[in-house]
């Protein structure tokens, strides 16, 4: 190796991990901030979302960028969890519309919860069964998709026609059981 190359390599500064950088760099996480963050995280894990939200928001003003970014994520999670408990629907149709909007925003577990709540109130709600079938197809749960779709079609045969043109079922279109559901042979 030439002496020029050795000089270049030896004069490079080593990267210092964020936790050990001097506080002037803006990325140092002091012990007090870290303790507050851990306390807020513990509140979140205990499902004390209102208290966790306050703690994370308080940290946002003083935390260094990497920690502040995590706090913003947890603030959003707290808001989402708190909004779940305060939702009240005038009708199951309104709740269904909300579930579909969650599905469209890729909040799959939250959408599943809403569809399940609808079915608990109205076990014959074919639209909720159809919604679950779509959700299952999107998330790759083929068996559950076929089961929910079969029940939706049994409850309301018009769901068969809708499923034939629904692009959300593209993951199951090659499955022969799906084809049998949509195009049954007449005896």
TrEMBL record:
Sequence ranges of the TPR repeats: 126-159
Keywords recorded for this protein, A-Z: TPR repeat
Biased composition (Polar residues): 1-10, 17-30
Region (Disordered): 1-30
Membrane spanning stretches: none
InterPro entries membership: TPR-like_helical_dom_sf (IPR011990), TPR_rpt (IPR019734)
Origin superkingdom: Bacteria
Name this polypeptide is given: Tetratricopeptide repeat protein
Organism: Acidicapsa dinghuensis
